[in-house]
Amino acid sequence: MDCERQPIILVSGAARPRPEDISAAEEVGRLLAAAGSIVLTGGGTGVMEAASRGARAAGGTTLAVLPGSSARESPPNPEVLIPVYSGMGNGRNAILVRSAEAVIAIGGGWGTLSEIALARNLDRPVVLLGSWRISPPDPTLGPMPVQARDAKEAVERALRAVRNA
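The structure assignment produced for this chain is given below.
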């Protein structure tokens, strides 16, 4: 059987986000799933749950890398189809980013910023949607994360970057 592999896109954001981040994340998840991508998150609440909910509503696959060693220690949100228990706490961010072909950061706190930095260190494309504003101290650092105006543009930019990689 010959089948095309689905791109894996990390949707990163806060567990306690702003209301506008919830609606953006749900739309991003829906659009990614409709485009045939697997939606990867940290498996928690907030942006992670909203992106997974959008993906599931569109019939997509949701994958999460959780900080604990078991479901008892780190229960995934109810929208996660495939939970992976890392036992690594915040160190799981490295697994999340290494597993993704692109990152869409929506709003977010310090954990989101760490994923953005890890992604750029690993040359993963990053699209920011209402997230951190980053300007490099040294222009030789390579491509910086790009800003998107809305969910549709964020998904288009992420998928274009994956196709062009």
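Interim note for the steering committee: The chain has one domain: 8-163. The mean pLDDT is 94.
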